[in-house]
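Progress against Task 2.4 (sequence-to-structure conversion) is shown through the following example record, which the project officer requested during the mid-term review.
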Amino acid sequence: MKRTIAIVAGGDSSELPVSLRSAQGLYTFMDKARYQLYIVEMKGHRWTVHLLDGSLTPIDRNDFGFIENGEKKHFDFAYITIHGTPGENGLLQGYFDMMGIPYSSCNVLASALTFNKFSCNQYLKSFGVKAADAILLRKGQSISDQEVINKIGLPCFVKPNAGGSSYGITKVKRKEQIRPAIEKAARESPEVVIEAFMQGTEITCGCYKTTKKQTVFPITEVVSHNEFFDTDAKYNGEVEEITPARIQEETAERIRKLTSSIYDILGCSGIIRIDYILTEGDVINLLEINTTPGMTTTSFIPQQVRAAGLDLGDVLTDIIEDKFNECRK
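Structure tokens generated for the chain above:
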């Protein structure tokens, strides 16, 4: 009998449309001979299942079940592809833990920590990971323009502390841009990070591990045609994504080892993707960690899987079956 898989998408952030595209990508990639697949769309309290006949039916949040053809059905596994809350920050992971439903991504702690960019980077600094100098502004806190210049300098980046897809990010070059940039970021997240600019090459590296294997994918070099890798660059083709990256093999190996090490330090699960800036002297600087990375046909992870000579359907099966094996122990 086929296992029933929920591809969980949507969410309550600006990344909802991206998440739905990732869900369609996963639906394409997954082994349909092995699994019965349904896309589950979440937005606020509206949780619905896309049935095979194209209709929608509500999820019963008491047991994550649904009715199809008059029969109550339950999911065996949840593949989370929500970018943002509640699927990337640990909230949904906690729900599935309580329901006893295995899922694809990191656990509650790792998800919550990685979603908080400032806290995650500060934590990893204690393990020797390099990251930009930064200031955190919580809701209700303020800072003068001159303090930003004195502590961080210009140019700098102002970004939401919890969010993705470059929504709400501004590269600030002049003093008078600081205040509008903070207000823009605050519309995406109650906490705002002001981060020092680092000149260099942006790269990203994916990784997944099971009880039987450890796989670090080829590194992608990101060459934006814009000021930085913003939303237009990501989704409107204003970028070159080069896999494998045009860097020295010794540097690439250090990046792969660091990616694997961070995966273990945080206790990650499933596929993650880590973004870095490679600065002068091939110094590796952490930008952020994505625990539910994009999974459209053109996203970084599918590109890296293809470059590694792997089949993404096999990778997804590895992750799903490994979680089932863990549950049986």
